[in-house]
Amino acid sequence: MSVCVVGLGLMGSALARRLKNVGFDVVVFNRSLDKAKMLAKEVGVGFAESPGKCCKEADVTALFVADDEALIDVVLMPGGIAEEVRNRDVVNMSTVSTAISLRISRVVENGGGRYVEAPVWGSVSEVLEGKLIAMVASSKELSENVKRFLSAVAQRTIIVGEIPKAMALKLALNQLNMVVVAILSETLPFLKLYGIDFKIFEELVKGSWMEPIVSRYLKRAIEEHPPRFKVELAAKDLQCFIESARIHKLNTPITAATMQRYLEATINGYGEKDYPNIAKYILDTLEKLKKP
Protein backbone atom coordinates (compact mmCIF):
# COMPACT_ATOMS: atom_id res chain seq x y z
CA MET A 1 0.00 0.00 0.00
CA SER A 2 1.26 3.48 -0.85
CA VAL A 3 0.82 6.75 1.01
CA CYS A 4 1.54 10.28 -0.16
CA VAL A 5 2.55 12.66 2.63
CA VAL A 6 1.96 16.33 1.81
CA GLY A 7 3.57 18.77 4.25
CA LEU A 8 6.92 18.00 5.83
CA GLY A 9 7.07 20.00 9.02
CA LEU A 10 7.91 18.25 12.29
CA MET A 11 4.81 16.06 12.18
CA GLY A 12 4.70 15.37 8.45
CA SER A 13 8.37 14.39 8.35
CA ALA A 14 7.87 12.07 11.32
CA LEU A 15 4.82 10.57 9.61
CA ALA A 16 6.84 9.77 6.47
CA ARG A 17 9.50 8.07 8.61
CA ARG A 18 6.92 6.07 10.55
CA LEU A 19 5.17 4.82 7.41
CA LYS A 20 8.46 3.86 5.79
CA ASN A 21 9.55 2.00 8.92
CA VAL A 22 6.38 -0.10 9.05
CA GLY A 23 6.51 -1.13 5.42
CA PHE A 24 4.42 1.34 3.43
CA ASP A 25 5.50 2.71 0.07
CA VAL A 26 5.84 6.44 0.70
CA VAL A 27 5.93 9.47 -1.60
CA VAL A 28 6.44 12.98 -0.21
CA PHE A 29 5.71 16.52 -1.31
CA ASN A 30 6.46 19.85 0.31
CA ARG A 31 5.95 23.32 -1.11
CA SER A 32 9.64 23.84 -0.40
CA LEU A 33 10.81 21.24 -2.91
CA ASP A 34 14.38 21.12 -1.61
CA LYS A 35 13.10 20.06 1.80
CA ALA A 36 11.09 17.24 0.22
CA LYS A 37 14.05 16.09 -1.88
CA MET A 38 16.33 16.02 1.17
CA LEU A 39 13.87 14.03 3.26
CA ALA A 40 13.18 11.61 0.40
CA LYS A 41 16.89 10.92 0.04
CA GLU A 42 17.47 10.64 3.79
CA VAL A 43 14.55 8.32 4.51
CA GLY A 44 14.56 6.41 1.24
CA VAL A 45 11.11 7.34 -0.03
CA GLY A 46 9.73 8.72 -3.27
CA PHE A 47 9.53 12.40 -4.17
CA ALA A 48 6.85 14.19 -6.17
CA GLU A 49 7.20 17.61 -7.77
CA SER A 50 3.56 18.55 -7.18
CA PRO A 51 0.86 17.56 -4.69
CA GLY A 52 -1.27 16.27 -7.55
CA LYS A 53 1.46 13.90 -8.74
CA CYS A 54 1.99 12.78 -5.16
CA CYS A 55 -1.72 12.02 -4.80
CA LYS A 56 -1.82 10.20 -8.15
CA GLU A 57 0.97 7.83 -7.10
CA ALA A 58 -0.65 6.79 -3.80
CA ASP A 59 -3.65 4.93 -2.39
CA VAL A 60 -3.97 7.40 0.49
CA THR A 61 -2.90 11.05 0.59
CA ALA A 62 -2.14 12.35 4.08
CA LEU A 63 -2.19 16.13 4.48
CA PHE A 64 -0.09 17.52 7.33
CA VAL A 65 0.27 21.20 6.48
CA ALA A 66 0.63 24.21 8.76
CA ASP A 67 -2.52 26.26 8.27
CA ASP A 68 -5.61 27.15 6.23
CA GLU A 69 -3.63 28.90 3.52
CA ALA A 70 -1.27 25.96 3.02
CA LEU A 71 -4.17 23.50 2.84
CA ILE A 72 -5.98 25.55 0.22
CA ASP A 73 -2.76 25.89 -1.74
CA VAL A 74 -1.82 22.21 -1.96
CA VAL A 75 -5.36 21.23 -2.91
CA LEU A 76 -6.27 24.01 -5.36
CA MET A 77 -2.92 25.16 -6.81
CA PRO A 78 -2.14 24.26 -10.44
CA GLY A 79 -1.04 20.65 -10.21
CA GLY A 80 -2.83 20.37 -6.88
CA ILE A 81 -4.55 17.43 -5.26
CA ALA A 82 -7.96 18.45 -6.64
CA GLU A 83 -6.77 17.51 -10.14
CA GLU A 84 -5.94 13.90 -9.23
CA VAL A 85 -8.35 13.03 -6.45
CA ARG A 86 -10.82 10.77 -8.27
CA ASN A 87 -11.24 7.39 -6.51
CA ARG A 88 -8.61 8.30 -3.94
CA ASP A 89 -8.64 8.78 -0.18
CA VAL A 90 -7.53 12.13 1.21
CA VAL A 91 -6.88 12.16 4.96
CA ASN A 92 -6.48 15.64 6.42
CA MET A 93 -4.38 15.45 9.58
CA SER A 94 -3.70 19.20 9.64
CA THR A 95 -5.27 21.43 12.28
CA VAL A 96 -7.25 24.08 10.40
CA SER A 97 -10.47 26.04 10.79
CA THR A 98 -13.73 24.13 10.50
CA ALA A 99 -14.85 26.28 7.55
CA ILE A 100 -11.74 25.46 5.53
CA SER A 101 -12.02 21.75 6.31
CA LEU A 102 -15.61 21.80 5.06
CA ARG A 103 -14.57 23.66 1.92
CA ILE A 104 -11.80 21.19 1.12
CA SER A 105 -14.08 18.22 1.81
CA ARG A 106 -16.49 19.50 -0.85
CA VAL A 107 -13.66 20.03 -3.35
CA VAL A 108 -12.39 16.49 -2.83
CA GLU A 109 -15.82 14.87 -2.93
CA ASN A 110 -16.94 16.89 -5.96
CA GLY A 111 -13.80 15.60 -7.69
CA GLY A 112 -14.77 12.01 -7.01
CA GLY A 113 -12.49 11.46 -4.03
CA ARG A 114 -13.11 10.54 -0.39
CA TYR A 115 -12.23 13.10 2.29
CA VAL A 116 -11.51 12.14 5.88
CA GLU A 117 -10.79 14.51 8.75
CA ALA A 118 -8.22 12.94 11.06
CA PRO A 119 -6.48 15.56 13.20
CA VAL A 120 -4.37 13.93 15.87
CA TRP A 121 -3.45 14.31 19.53
CA GLY A 122 0.24 13.77 20.13
CA SER A 123 3.60 15.02 18.96
CA VAL A 124 6.65 13.80 17.06
CA SER A 125 7.52 10.96 19.43
CA GLU A 126 3.97 9.61 19.28
CA VAL A 127 4.04 9.73 15.47
CA LEU A 128 7.28 7.77 15.31
CA GLU A 129 5.97 5.17 17.75
CA GLY A 130 2.52 4.90 16.16
CA LYS A 131 0.86 6.10 19.36
CA LEU A 132 -1.18 9.05 18.16
CA ILE A 133 -4.85 9.49 19.00
CA ALA A 134 -6.80 10.21 15.82
CA MET A 135 -10.13 12.03 15.81
CA VAL A 136 -11.98 11.00 12.68
CA ALA A 137 -14.93 12.45 10.78
CA SER A 138 -16.17 11.54 7.32
CA SER A 139 -19.31 11.67 5.22
CA LYS A 140 -18.71 8.08 4.10
CA GLU A 141 -17.62 4.81 5.66
CA LEU A 142 -13.85 4.60 5.96
CA SER A 143 -12.14 2.59 3.23
CA GLU A 144 -9.93 -0.36 4.12
CA ASN A 145 -6.91 1.65 2.96
CA VAL A 146 -7.72 4.48 5.37
CA LYS A 147 -8.29 2.03 8.22
CA ARG A 148 -4.93 0.39 7.53
CA PHE A 149 -3.20 3.76 7.35
CA LEU A 150 -4.71 4.96 10.64
CA SER A 151 -3.89 1.71 12.42
CA ALA A 152 -0.23 2.21 11.47
CA VAL A 153 0.03 5.65 13.06
CA ALA A 154 -2.60 5.79 15.82
CA GLN A 155 -3.09 3.62 18.88
CA ARG A 156 -6.64 4.93 19.20
CA THR A 157 -9.07 6.10 16.53
CA ILE A 158 -12.12 7.96 17.78
CA ILE A 159 -14.98 8.28 15.30
CA VAL A 160 -16.59 11.64 15.98
CA GLY A 161 -19.25 11.85 13.28
CA GLU A 162 -19.64 14.00 10.21
CA ILE A 163 -17.27 16.72 9.01
CA PRO A 164 -16.19 19.09 10.64
CA LYS A 165 -16.75 17.53 14.08
CA ALA A 166 -13.26 15.99 14.29
CA MET A 167 -11.66 19.34 13.50
CA ALA A 168 -13.85 21.11 16.04
CA LEU A 169 -12.85 18.57 18.70
CA LYS A 170 -9.14 19.03 17.94
CA LEU A 171 -9.46 22.81 18.10
CA ALA A 172 -11.22 22.53 21.47
CA LEU A 173 -8.45 20.32 22.87
CA ASN A 174 -5.74 22.67 21.63
CA GLN A 175 -7.59 25.75 22.88
CA LEU A 176 -7.89 24.38 26.42
CA ASN A 177 -4.26 23.25 26.42
CA MET A 178 -2.90 26.57 25.13
CA VAL A 179 -5.00 28.65 27.53
CA VAL A 180 -3.89 26.63 30.57
CA VAL A 181 -0.23 26.93 29.55
CA ALA A 182 -0.67 30.68 28.99
CA ILE A 183 -2.05 31.06 32.52
CA LEU A 184 1.02 29.28 33.90
CA SER A 185 3.19 31.63 31.85
CA GLU A 186 1.93 34.51 34.00
CA THR A 187 1.95 32.58 37.27
CA LEU A 188 5.66 31.77 37.08
CA PRO A 189 6.92 35.34 36.45
CA PHE A 190 4.64 36.53 39.26
CA LEU A 191 6.28 34.06 41.65
CA LYS A 192 9.74 35.08 40.51
CA LEU A 193 9.03 38.78 41.01
CA TYR A 194 8.16 38.03 44.63
CA GLY A 195 11.21 35.84 45.13
CA ILE A 196 9.29 32.59 45.61
CA ASP A 197 11.16 29.44 44.62
CA PHE A 198 9.32 27.40 41.99
CA LYS A 199 10.05 24.25 44.03
CA ILE A 200 7.94 25.61 46.89
CA PHE A 201 5.10 26.19 44.43
CA GLU A 202 5.47 22.62 43.09
CA GLU A 203 5.37 21.23 46.62
CA LEU A 204 2.29 23.22 47.54
CA VAL A 205 0.18 22.02 44.59
CA LYS A 206 0.92 18.33 45.21
CA GLY A 207 -2.27 16.36 45.63
CA SER A 208 -4.41 19.05 44.01
CA TRP A 209 -5.85 19.21 40.50
CA MET A 210 -3.00 21.60 39.64
CA GLU A 211 -0.22 19.07 40.30
CA PRO A 212 -0.23 17.30 36.90
CA ILE A 213 -0.31 20.64 35.06
CA VAL A 214 2.59 22.14 37.00
CA SER A 215 4.54 18.88 36.93
CA ARG A 216 4.11 18.50 33.16
CA TYR A 217 4.81 22.05 32.08
CA LEU A 218 7.02 23.87 34.60
CA LYS A 219 10.40 22.75 33.23
CA ARG A 220 9.19 23.02 29.64
CA ALA A 221 8.05 26.56 30.41
CA ILE A 222 11.31 27.91 31.83
CA GLU A 223 13.90 25.82 29.97
CA GLU A 224 14.56 25.38 26.27
CA HIS A 225 13.79 21.96 24.82
CA PRO A 226 13.30 20.70 21.26
CA PRO A 227 9.82 21.92 20.32
CA ARG A 228 6.98 19.42 20.53
CA PHE A 229 4.67 22.14 19.24
CA LYS A 230 5.80 25.62 18.25
CA VAL A 231 4.63 28.90 19.76
CA GLU A 232 3.68 30.23 16.31
CA LEU A 233 1.49 27.20 15.63
CA ALA A 234 -0.24 27.63 18.99
CA ALA A 235 -1.18 31.17 17.92
CA LYS A 236 -2.47 29.83 14.61
CA ASP A 237 -4.61 27.14 16.24
CA LEU A 238 -6.15 29.66 18.63
CA GLN A 239 -7.01 31.85 15.64
CA CYS A 240 -8.69 28.84 14.00
CA PHE A 241 -10.66 28.23 17.21
CA ILE A 242 -11.80 31.87 17.33
CA GLU A 243 -12.85 31.86 13.67
CA SER A 244 -14.67 28.55 14.03
CA ALA A 245 -16.50 29.82 17.14
CA ARG A 246 -17.45 33.06 15.39
CA ILE A 247 -19.40 31.09 12.77
CA HIS A 248 -21.86 30.22 15.54
CA LYS A 249 -21.71 33.71 17.09
CA LEU A 250 -19.75 32.48 20.12
CA ASN A 251 -17.62 35.25 21.63
CA THR A 252 -14.24 34.02 22.94
CA PRO A 253 -12.44 36.92 24.68
CA ILE A 254 -10.25 34.71 26.88
CA THR A 255 -9.02 32.77 23.87
CA ALA A 256 -8.45 36.01 21.96
CA ALA A 257 -6.31 37.42 24.78
CA THR A 258 -4.36 34.16 24.95
CA MET A 259 -3.75 34.22 21.21
CA GLN A 260 -2.31 37.72 21.53
CA ARG A 261 0.23 36.45 24.07
CA TYR A 262 1.41 33.72 21.69
CA LEU A 263 1.53 36.21 18.82
CA GLU A 264 3.53 38.63 20.96
CA ALA A 265 6.05 35.90 21.76
CA THR A 266 6.23 34.94 18.08
CA ILE A 267 6.87 38.52 16.97
CA ASN A 268 9.66 38.79 19.55
CA GLY A 269 11.58 35.79 18.28
CA TYR A 270 10.05 32.89 20.21
CA GLY A 271 7.84 31.52 17.42
CA GLU A 272 10.04 28.48 16.74
CA LYS A 273 10.29 27.51 20.40
CA ASP A 274 8.20 24.97 22.30
CA TYR A 275 4.85 26.57 23.14
CA PRO A 276 5.26 26.50 26.98
CA ASN A 277 8.25 28.80 26.39
CA ILE A 278 5.89 31.77 26.34
CA ALA A 279 6.68 31.77 30.08
CA LYS A 280 10.38 31.98 29.26
CA TYR A 281 9.59 34.84 26.90
CA ILE A 282 7.98 36.79 29.76
CA LEU A 283 10.77 35.90 32.20
CA ASP A 284 13.44 36.94 29.68
CA THR A 285 11.58 40.20 29.02
CA LEU A 286 11.52 40.99 32.74
CA GLU A 287 15.27 40.39 32.95
CA LYS A 288 15.86 42.79 30.06
CA LEU A 289 13.77 45.45 31.77
CA LYS A 290 16.04 45.27 34.83
CA LYS A 291 19.04 46.31 32.77
CA PRO A 292 19.78 50.06 32.66
General form = elongated
CATH architecture of the largest domain: 3-Layer(aba) Sandwich
Contiguous helical run count:
13
Distance between the termini: 63 Å
| Pattern of helices and strands | EHEHEHEHEHEEHEHEHHHHHH
Under CATH, the homologous superfamily of the largest domain reads NAD(P)-binding Rossmann-like Domain
In helices, the fraction of residues equals 55-70%
Strand content range: 5-15%
As for the CATH topology of the largest domain, it is Rossmann fold
Please write the CATH class name of the largest domain. Alpha Beta
Number of strands: 9
Describe the largest sheet: 9 strands, mixed
Number of domains: 2
Indicate the radius of gyration in whole angstroms.
Answer: 20 Å
Question: Pairing-aware structural class of the strands and helices?
Answer: alpha/beta
Mean pLDDT reading: 96
Low-confidence stretches: none
Distinctive features:
single chain; 292 residues; alpha/beta; Rossmann fold; N-(1-d-carboxylethyl)-l-norvaline Dehydrogenase, domain 2; nine-stranded mixed β-sheet; 13 helices; 9 strands; NAD(P)-bd_dom_sf
Question: Brief description of this entry?
Answer:
This protein has helices spanning 10-21, 33-43, 51-56, 68-76, 98-110, 124-129, 144-153, 165-193, 198-205, 211-222, 231-246, 253-270, 278-290, and strands at 2-6, 25-29, 46-47, 60-63, 89-92, 114-117, 120-121, 132-138, 154-161. It has 292 residues and is of the alpha/beta class.
